[in-house]
Amino acid sequence: MSGQSDEELIFAITQGDQVAFETLLNRHVDALYSYALRLGHSTTLADDLVQETWLKLWEKAHTFKPGKVRTSTWLHRILHNKFIDKGRKHTELLNNEAALSVHATTTPQSEYSASSTVDELNRTLAKLPQNQRAALLLTHAQGFSNKEVATILGVGTRAVESLLARARLTLRNYFQCSREFE
Amino acid sequence: MKQPHENAFDQFLDELKKQRLPAPTYLHQRILANLPERGALNDWFGVFTWLQNSLWRGVVAMLIPVAIGFSVGTYIPQESQNYSVETLLYADHLEEFGEHEI
């Protein structure tokens, strides 16, 4: 089962094959969790997003179009849409820099247990608006191409380039300011 | 030569790439434990939809203009040979009363 391609596993999942589901889960769950955690800054939120993404895969595997997008792109798109949906219900998750900064710095260790480097990364990422943060994470942390990022975010490739340029500029300015303070 | 803040930025991107945040084991178990049961009907429906997405949609799309062309092509010649009931009755009426001009 582990030698099968993602597309073969998804076809097996459409027929209710739980072993195929588990194989695909083991293959992609870490990348999804990593993205969800950095995007939302909360283990509770990341757990929910990842679980809902896999539940949707189980129920809607037949809607996957092999050859059009990679499985990882499709899964990240589902997760990102789930995040946006949750953001609509809890507006503080989206485009609220102040809320994100406060949330990231005041998150208890039990909530986000990791080294100080992770905390530092988390705090730095929180400086970015949600869409810029998503574009930066998908490109630099998850290793997607600009075209794939565009598919995941549901925007054009030019918009992704613009988001990345603005994210890099914001972070460069942030690092420059923090150096000047030191 | 790069400015110190440029180095910090590069280091940040590098850390972002290298750092792995694996999903906790309880999450694997939670996902697998909460999968809803799927009946045979759902499975067959899933396979049908899968086929429909990839193959049948194309076939149906090609058959639609063929079907329209066939039905129009068979209907029009039949229609042109038939006169309406009113026209036939009027022709009988004229014949009966000796008027031969329609």
Summed up:
The complex is a heterodimer of chains A (182) and B (102). By secondary structure, chain A is mainly alpha-helical. Helix content of chain A is 74%, strand content 0%.
Provide structural commentary.
- The complex is a heterodimer of chains A (182) and B (102).
- With 182 residues, chain A is mostly helical.
- In chain A, 74% of the residues lie in helices and 0% in strands.
- Chain A has two domains: 1-91, Rna Polymerase Sigma Factor, Chain: A (Orthogonal Bundle), CATH 1.10.1740.10; 106-182, Winged helix-like DNA-binding domain superfamily/Winged helix DNA-binding domain (Arc Repressor Mutant, subunit A, Orthogonal Bundle).
- In chain A, helix 2 crosses helix 4.
- Chain A starts with 5 loop residues before the first helix and ends with a helix.
- With 102 residues, chain B is mainly alpha-helical.
- The model of chain B has no long low-confidence stretch (mean pLDDT 75).
- Classes of the chains: A mainly alpha (182), B mainly alpha (102).
SSE topology sketch:
The complex is a heterodimer of chains A (about 180) and B (about 100).
Chain A: H1 6-14, H2 18-40, H3 43-60, H4 71-89, H5 97-106, H6 116-125, H7 130-141, H8 146-153, H9 157-181
Helix pairs in contact in A: 1-2, 2-3, 2-4, 3-4, 4-8, 7-9, 8-9
Chain B: H1 4-18, H2 25-33, H3 40-81, H4 85-96
Alpha-beta classification of chain A? mainly alpha
Distance between the termini of chain A: 54 Å
Q: From the 3D coordinates, which CATH architecture of the largest domain in chain A would you assign?
A: Orthogonal Bundle
Query: Could you give a short account of the major beta sheet of chain A?
Result: none
Task: Tally the helices of chain B.
Answer: 4
Helix share bin of chain A: over 70%
- Biggest interface, residues from each chain: A-B, 46 and 34 residues
Give the fraction of residues assigned to helices of chain B: over 70%
Low-confidence segments of chain A, ≥5 residues, pLDDT <50? 95-114
CATH topology of the largest domain in chain A: Rna Polymerase Sigma Factor, Chain: A
Low-confidence stretches of chain B: none
The proportion of residues in beta strands of chain B is under 5%
